[in-house]
Amino acid sequence: MNGANPEKDPQKNLLPILSIAATTITTIIISLYYLSSGSFIIFQNLFYIPIILSCMYYAMRGFIYSICLAIIYFLLILTFTSDSDTILQSLIRVTLFIAIGGIITFLSMQHKRLKGTLQEEREKFRVVADSTYDWVYWTDPQRNLLYVSPSCERISGYRSKEFMADAGLIYHIVHPDDQDLFRRHMDEYHNLMANKKGEVEFRIVDRNNKEHWIAQLCQPVYNNEGQFLGRCSSNRDITERKQADEALHASKAQLSNALEMAHLGPWEYDVANDLFTFNDHFYKIFSTTVEQCGGYTMDSAEYAHRFVHPDDIVVVGEEIRKAIETMDPYFNRQIEHRMLYADGTIGYINVRFFIIKDSHGKTVKTYGVNQDITSLKKSEEALRENEEKFRTIFDRASDGILIADAITKQFLQGNTSACSMLGYTKEEIESLTVYDIHPPEDITHVLDEFEKQLKGEKILAKDLPVLRKDGSIFYVDIGSTLITIGGMHYLMGIFHDITAHKEAEEMLLKERKKFITLSENAAFGMVLIDGEGKITYVNPKFKELFGYDIEDVPDGRTWFKKAYPDPEYRKTVISAWVEDLKQARIGQKRPRTFKVYCKDGKEKIVNFVPVQLETGEHMMSCNDITEQKCFEEKLQAISLTDDLTGLYNRRGFFTLTQQQMKVAERAKKDMLLFFADLDKMKHINDTLGHQGGDKALIEVANILKEVFRESDIIGRMGGDEFAILAIDTTDETREVLIKRLHNTLDDYNRPEGRNYKLSLSIGIAHYDPEKPSSLDELIAQADTLMYEEKNNKQH
User: Which positions ≥6 away from 61 have C-beta within 8 Å?
Assistant: First the structure.
């Protein structure tokens, strides 16, 4: 690396050596020619060339070489001339040659020394960068790659030189779903001010098509003068962390679903006022309702009388007393006691409660949650003894710790839990090695994990077999860290017994079997759909509800075609499902109601409740609500129509008219409100009775239906009064409708033998969307005009 030792790489320096030699020989030959012809000026300038070249390329030795050339130059002068002035000038020029050579030599040596120092610093940086665990790469201000650390191969499967050769490789390996995110990040952080950092998380696909989650941190780099040199990007593989986050999220979702299925009932108790506050979930636990209990609040005496078993009232009261009297602000309790259902039967309940204290340390409130554990108590009765033993062991268990010599692998010491795990005393453990606590057939794998942990390549060794003193085997996860004691290196291992985890897996399998049993006996249809849209399971109720078996509808596409034969309606249904799928979250319910065409040709109204599972599947419940919907429609019709005439009643007219007025105001449409009264209704009732009066009202209703359009709203306001809202009208419409009404009345009255003649007094109010009026104002205006017409008829 030192510029004074060019011979260390003779092949590299061959070209400058040949160049200097050729230049020197050529210079001497040309010099002899010019000297012989008496041309000293050209001769003198020629010698600058080899002197400068030798000093530039060979520093100190080049300088010595330049002195020799200067002497040769002077000797040639003495040979070809005896002129004292020329000799003096040549002597000055020799001195100048030596001075120039010295200056160039000094500058050349300084340049090569700085170049060597820079090279050494670069090598130091490269050694440090190459040793980093993260994948690091550098770019210049123009985004050109300057360096890629070897760790890129560990994460991506591609070597540094592959990235250096192909600048687009980093973009190529980004997961297709994250391409836009990554490119946007790269563009944004390169466009940021130089002193800003950029962070992003994305996925890559390595050479073996395996996905990795990467956390990238980009930050600027400056030299000592503050000049921006580019950016350094550090890529860390966070795949395991992401997997852990997803597992945690799934666990939270499972817990949330379990709490919902458990029907927990929260409550609060105001100490000063001796008042409990409940909600509907609480009452549901006891198979009662707020109406039956007279409200959401009750005092402690009523609570105990209604819900607590008489033999457990003292126990519950004692716990409440402790909560009130305790000085511990973090006091909390969990108790189980017998409860009373609304019908008097006995169950079991689990109560977990906490306290709230005021600034004086006085308990002012307790709050908690009740859970009905009656079915759990019954199902666990046969296993109670074994569970109590397991709970005792589990509650007292803690991780074992062993410290082993990094070289000899002999244990320095072990804690009480490790002794308990292995069955050895502390003294016995100190005489053992790693070889003694693992099965012989697994020792190679164990030692390999030990060495990786020792080198820092691995922190957690999973699922390792451990041999107890009695010869039995159990499995642990061992986390380790390197420590130094008295100048000696040891590996401290923390042994975590994963037996409980394996038992939990077995319990999960049992729970899955329970789920299948429940679904087979469910009172509603259930269907399971995988991530590709294939239907993998339908329960018996599903077959009973729709008539379709899994062979009839093997996938969602077939289901949509058979269940929704109308193309337009099918399109609406599919759009709704697609929108729900986009917004779906694990455990979230998004109920939908659709009309379904069954296998037997019948049409049913079904409520669907899909739930996305953490496995990517969708579980959907199906409940037939056809009868419920029909009943609701009948109730709706009864509440809005007049029984006698079939017209809208006052409520129906007001409801529909107010909606139509909003539409007219937005659309800027004029309307007319007709208010009509049947003339001489009292005379008809008095002479023909109420049956005659009813007949007259029905005839008026029929006349109004004939005169007005189907889009107009006609209602009987009560007694002999009618109202009509004529929609989208003009000035011509008013006259046409009045004329049509009079003609129709005449047609009804024309036949001979009628006992009465129909006559209507009418008032008409105009609705102007530019100056909108309320419905009450329009009716009042039309009513006034109607009575004016009636009075005019009487005079």
Answer: 4
